[in-house]
Known about the structure:
The chain has helices at about 5-20, 25-30, 45-50, 60-75, 90-95, 145-155, 180-190, 195-200. It is mainly alpha-helical. The protein has a domain at about 90-200: Cytochrome c-like domain (Cytochrome Bc1 Complex, Chain D, domain 2, Orthogonal Bundle). The longest helix has 17 residues, at about 5-20. Pfam families: Cytochrom_C.
Amino acid sequence: MNILKVLSLGIAAGLALAAHADNTEAVLRESMKPKNQARMDRIEQNALQTACSNAADTVANDKQARQLREAAQASVRYPANGKYLGDWRRGQMIAADGTGLQWSDDPKAANGGNCYACHQLDKQEMAYGTVGPSLLNYGQRGQSEAMLKYTWAKIWNPNAYVLCSHMPRFGDAGILTEQQLKDVMALLMDPTSPVNAELVHE
Ligand code: HEC
């Protein structure tokens, strides 16, 4: 195929997209096909996502922001037995596991947390994303009741603290189980976990 043909095909595709530019949802609906557990409800937005879906990542007014934040905070379910910390070794595997919820994944298998996709969590791991802040030495903040609750709520529903957060709602959206959340909590907060390796050996 010559270069002009390639270019004109590209332009045609560009025009087709531009025609839909005012309606991203229509493009998504036309292009996405439901398969296995990945169904069309994946593109339904909740009230907060609708409010945050603009270039500025902010909601229209303070009243709406307050209502959405309160709803996000009210969504958090704290551990029934009051114990927040599980096993950091299991937490490390969950944080590094990027499988789950795709049409090709086994819906009966446990989901991963994929934390490394956005966070640095271990000095020894070179492959990590930077969409979120580095969580190295997170344990430095201690294990007060306030820190345990903050961290739990943050992972359960990140929107409870940063309204238009881009982090997944691991508890609220049912991505991780309560036990998995505890294991990931231990990874962040246990002074002997690789996240806090520097603190221990200081
Ligand atoms: C798609 C990217 C993404 C993924 C995946 C992700 N995070 Fe985040 N995370 C963020 C972003 C962005 C922030 C900062 C903005 C905010 O607070 O929402 C953040 C903030 C945090 C914070 C608060 C940090 C602080 O300084 O108080 C914690 C704790 C956290 N993430 C833990 C996790 C854990 C544990 C996982 C895996 C189970 C995870 N994140 C997966 C994007 C992500």
